[in-house]
Design a protein that fits this description.
Blueprint lengths: L8 H33 L4 E2 L2 H8 L11 E3 L4 H13 L4 E4 L14 E4 L7 E4 L4 E4 L5 H8 L4 E2 L12 H6 L13 H4 E7 L5 E3 L5 H8 L1 H15 L2 H10 L12 H4 L3 H9 L8 E8 L1 E2 L3 E9 L2 H13 L4 E5 L1 H7 L7 H4 L7 E9 L2 H15 L14 H20 L6 E8 L5 H14 L7 E4 L4 E8 L7 H16 L11 H4 L3 H5 L1 H14 L54 H16 L3 H8 L2 H7 L6 H5 L6 H12 L2 H12 L1 H16 L3 H15 L27 E4 L3 H4 L10 H13 L3 E2 L11 H6 L2 H18 L7 E3 L2 H13 L8 E3 H6 L11 E6 L3 H6 L2 H11 E5 L13 H4 L1 H22 L5 E4 L2 H11 L3 E3 H8 L3
Parallel strand pairs: 2-4, 3-4, 18-19, 18-20, 20-21, 22-23, 22-24, 24-25
Antiparallel strand pairs: 1-2, 5-6, 6-10, 7-11, 8-9, 8-10, 12-14, 13-14, 13-16, 15-17, 16-17
Helix pairs in contact: 1-3, 2-22, 2-23, 7-8, 8-11, 8-21, 12-17, 13-16, 17-18, 22-23, 27-33, 31-41, 37-41, 39-40
Length: 965
């Protein structure tokens, strides 16, 4: 939406008919285009549903455009068809994958091509020396595949958890470590690209250059001509060399004309950093870099930014791999972190500055030599306090948490309804100190509070954050600041964009940074590659000096649980529903867009935006909390969804779940008995009955399938005055029995066997058969039932644990998490300690003799274990009893989520598909199945068994078998 509008009653009256006619014509054109795309790509790959359009509209920037069509092409041919259709309709198209871009280059009012869903190929080449990857794969996923080869991608953006290769190439990504030597431009080996004409070229093909010349003669000849034009101008050459001596993502990478002669090579390197305005990159091959395993980290504290900046040349000359600058405000803000290192918390200097320095080496001896040399260097730098380089992993992580936590600390403290802007610039290193000082003053002069400045000091690259409220339509402060910033940076011979791409935010200033001649060269490059101008117009070049003020995003307050959301998208890769319906970011932004529509008086649009939200936003959310582990501001979107479920729950449903809480012992036993009875019958008729029932009565009726196990056994009871722990066995063990051939008592029986062998005495609480961790009620928002369960569980556990003296051990990971949440919510239960049984059992391993080793085991870490930090204990148990332990890199939340796997089996199928694929690939590579498959939660085991066709069991069952006398 554009905030700057001309408002006049007369204009509205006279313009209304023509505006209505234009809107109708546009709508007709959109539907025609959508129909053509559906015919070419398939109906399921194209949507104009408002919920889908608004869900895909948002990226991490402070701009917002709502696409008219969202398409999900699958192949190069689909891309060519899409581009041809958009050209016929003069409709712009923007390619979007991760949506983590910060400068407004991943949005459009035209066709948004979602290239994340289907472009996910990844192939490691040459023992990790290079990697072939498609645009939908995240940097983290690529590096996880390369890790066993001790290699990684050169570009190392801070958003690696969510940013994808598509954006890495489109923005010429770099990062904290790679500088300009190992960024995308320097490490990309070849690419396969699709031009707006439909031509597909693989630059790695030996015949690619001649094919490029023959199929695209105008582009080929035009690039050669532009190269000659640049080389004939000493001023152009000098300007380009200076601009790209720094990190620089402003405009097109004209250094390609100086670095290469072949027009194909030139074009490939122009496409890098072109933000999807020249071609679509369907695949890229990168040369990788060595990951040095031995690292030392230290925080150098200086008496000011000037002193810190002055030390950078010596640090670079000494081979410092990283030198991250933090100004005085950054250090002060960092001290708010609960686990901030003492050395920062106790700083008492008036205007300190810090450099987080890191040294990396291939061997301990090399690192010792480098650290010794660095210590001698530090002695002469005029540090404000002594520094010790640490190799301890925890201490290093604490220091890096300070640096990486700046964004979350500032963003989470911003006023509700404002936008968080994270910007970056670069200047020659000699100008860094003065620029940092002047930038701080500039931010303060314009009224931006806590102007945090930090950055990659050895590259002269500064980042800064500010909060702005665009809801009022008054952009004067933002305009004035931007103009002053441009003067400051260009006055220091710097670049207005170092890493984040030009985007809409700086497109109007490209001419000013490069001058008229080179700007015209850039425009000619665009005309040659994209004659119709359909590829992401306005994202790199703009002749409108005020275009950066158009389409500014408004972030209305909607719900307390999620108002801190900065729409960064970090949550999306870990969300189990990401490929089925919506992600946490989308669940939030849809509610924001609907609220904004209401604020503008458009109730019909608000209704359209949320039409389908009940299923996509609420029913298929696993409320697993994984989004909270990735969110930089700590949002668990499940909290919002649980509250929405509570508000939407009908009186009958709520009463039924409350009644179940009052008779849970009987209800869980009945559920188990029903499954046992069903297991004894042919599955097809029962499956048919439940399908019919779901159609008639709704999807709150569980879906039965023949793969479900029979019921389990009653929960055991033990009394022991000398007990060392209290066992809180999970009720899912009563409802769902073990896999065929598993321990008769399931995870609970296996745990009791293990404890007996280790000499550990246990007791259970009175009435445990009628208790539950509360997750079934909490996840559904059934507050009354959950509160009743809490009212009986907390007193019973207080008594059983002797007031908290004994730990409470839970034999299902999700139930351990749920019980801990319940106890923390009660004042009298806050002192009770909950331990996952796998953590408890891992501590018993020295007492357990393995009598029958398992040849191999494949693991599924649960989301609850990830959140609780018990995944290492799962691996430790497996390593203790098995010769080979494998965990798929694609492992994530299975989406079973208590009963979601029964109510919405499509959620589990979608969530587990990547992991099932990774497991299948591993089995192909090893030439056969694993001996065992294990997890730590019965419903997760059911979900993985359903997805893979492999019998997943609780790891405690395997431990009990392997240690059986």
């Amino acid at each position: 939406m554009k905030l700057r509008t001309t408002t006049s009653a007369h204009l509205r009256e006279t313009a209304a008919p023509s505006a209505a006619a234009a809107a109708e014509a546009a709508g007709t054109g959109t539907q025609t285009l959508a129909a053509e795309l559906a015919a070419a790509l398939g109906a399921e790959a194209v949507t104009t549903r408002p919920l889908d359009l608004h869900a895909k509209a948002h990226d991490a920037s402070h701009y917002l455009l709502v696409p008219s069509v969202v398409a999900a092409p699958r192949t190069d041919r689909d891309i060519a068809s899409l581009l041809a259709a958009c050209a016929r309709h003069d409709t712009p198209v923007t390619f979007r994958s991760g949506g983590t871009s910060l400068s407004g280059q991943a949005i459009t009012a035209g066709v948004l091509a979602d290239t994340r869903r289907n472009f996910s190929g990844l192939e490691v080449l040459g023992g990790g020396a290079s990697v072939r990857v498609q645009p939908g794969v995240t940097v983290r996923a690529v590096n996880a595949r390369l890790a066993r080869h001790h290699r990684a991608l050169g570009p190392d953006p801070a958003s690696e958890i969510a940013c994808t290769i598509g954006g890495v190439v489109a923005n010429n990504s770099s990062g904290m470590h790679c500088g300009t030597e190992a960024n995308t431009y320097r490490t990309l080996k070849s690419m396969r690209f699709v031009l707006p004409s439909g031509t597909v070229i693989d630059s790695g093909d030996p015949a690619a250059s001649s094919e490029f010349a023959s199929r695209e003669p105008a582009l080929h000849e035009g690039l050669a001509r532009l190269g000659q034009r640049i080389l004939a101008s000493t001023d152009s050459v000098a300007r380009i060399r200076h601009q790209f001596s720094m990190k620089n993502t402003m405009g097109y990478g004209l250094n390609a004309f100086l670095d290469f002669e072949d027009p194909l090579d030139i074009f490939v390197h122009l496409v890098i950093g072109s933000e999807g305005t020249l071609a679509f990159v369907a695949e890229a091959v990168f040369d990788t870099v060595e990951v040095k395993p031995h690292i030392a980290t230290g925080l150098l504290v200086f008496p000011g930014v000037g002193a810190a900046a002055a030390a950078i040349p010596e640090l670079v000359a000494a081979g410092a791999d990283t030198a991250e600058l933090m100004d005085a405000v950054s250090l002060r803000v960092s001290s708010r972190l609960s686990d901030c290192p003492e050395e920062i918390r106790t700083l008492d200097l008036s205007d300190p500055a810090g450099l987080l320095v890191e040294l990396a080496a291939s061997s301990p001896e090399e690192l010792a030599d480098r650290a010794s040399a660095a210590t001698r260097l530090f002695a002469g730098l005029g540090l404000a306090r002594p520094v010790a380089m640490t190799r301890d992993a925890r201490e290093r992580a604490a220091l890096w948490k300070v640096r990486k936590g700046l964004y979350s600390t500032v963003a989470s403290a911003r006023p509700s309804g404002t936008s968080q802007l994270l910007e970056d610039i670069a200047v020659p290193v000699p100008a860094l100190a003065g620029t940092c000082h002047d930038l701080a003053g500039l931010l303060a002069d314009h009224g931006y509070r806590d102007p945090v400045i930090f950055g990659h000091a050895k590259d002269g690259n500064l980042h800064f954050m500010l909060n702005e409220d665009f809801s009022t339509g008054d952009t004067s402060r933002y305009e004035d600041f931007t103009e002053d910033l441009v003067d400051l940076v260009l006055g220091a011979s710097g670049t207005l964009k170092a890493e984040h791409g030009t985007g809409r935010i700086m497109a109007p200033y490209v001419r000013r940074q490069y001058g008229d001649e080179l700007y015209e060269v850039m425009k000619e490059v665009k005309r040659l590659a994209d004659p119709r101008g359909i590829l992401n117009p306005g994202a790199v070049l703009s002749d409108d000096p005020r275009s950066y003020l158009a389409d500014l995003k408004v972030t209305p307050a909607v719900e307390e649980e999620v108002d801190r959301c900065v729409e960064c998208g970090y949550c999306e890769p870990v969300c189990p529903s990401r490929s089925l319906t919506l992600t946490p970011r989308q669940r939030i932004t849809l509610r924001r867009d609907a609220e904004q529509a209401r604020a503008e008086g458009n109730e019909e649009l608000a209704r359209q935006i949320l039409d389908g939200y009940d299923y996509s936003g609420v029913s298929t959310c696993a409320v697993d909390g994984m989004c909270g582990t990735a969110c930089p501001v700590g949002i668990n979107t499940g909290d919002l969804v649980r509250r929405v479920r509570a508000e939407e729950a009908g009186r009958i449903e709520s009463a039924a779940w409350n009644a179940a809480a009052h008779a849970w012992g009987a209800a869980s036993r009945v559920g188990g008995a029903a499954l046992s009875s069903a297991k004894a019958l042919p599955s097809a008729p029962l499956e048919g009955v439940t399908r019919v029932a779901r159609k008639l009565l709704g999807e709150e009726i569980p879906m039965y399938d023949g793969g479900l196990p029979g019921g389990g056994v009653a929960r055991p009871r033990r009394r022991d005055d000398a007990a060392e722990a209290v066992l809180f066995s999970a009720c899912i063990g009563t409802m769902f029995g073990p896999e065929e051939g598993g321990h008769p008592g399931g995870a609970t029986g296996a745990f009791l066997d293990v404890c007996d062998r280790a000499g550990v005495r246990l007791r259970t609480s009175e009435g445990v058969g009628s208790m539950c961790c509360g997750t079934p009620w909490k996840s559904k928002g059934m507050t009354l039932g959950w509160e009743h369960m809490r009212s009986i569980v907390v007193p019973a556990l207080l008594e059983a644990t002797e007031g908290g003296r004994l730990p409470i051990v839970v034999d299902a990971s999700s139930c351990a998490e749920g019980l801990a949440i319940m106890l923390r919510s009660a004042a009298e239960g806050s002192g009770l300690r909950v331990v996952d049984a796998i953590e408890f059992a891992a501590g018993l391993l020295p007492r357990l003799e393995v009598s029958s080793r398992i040849p191999s085991v494949a693991l599924h870490p649960t989301c609850s274990g990830t959140i609780a930090g018990t995944t290492p204990q799962l691996a430790a148990i497996a390593g203790h009893i098995a010769d080979e332990v494998f965990t798929p890199l694609e492992a994530g939340c299975c989406g079973f989520a208590g009963d979601r796997g029964l109510l919405h089996p499509e959620l589990t199928a979608s969530a587990t598909a990547p992991e099932a694929g990774g497991l299948a690939e591993a089995e192909r590579e090893r030439g056969g199945r694993f001996a065992e498959y294990a997890s730590s939660n019965r419903t997760c085991e059911i979900g993985l068994t359903r997805a893979t066709g492999r019998p997943y069991r609780h790891i405690l069952e395997l431990l009990a078998e392997a240690t059986r006398p």
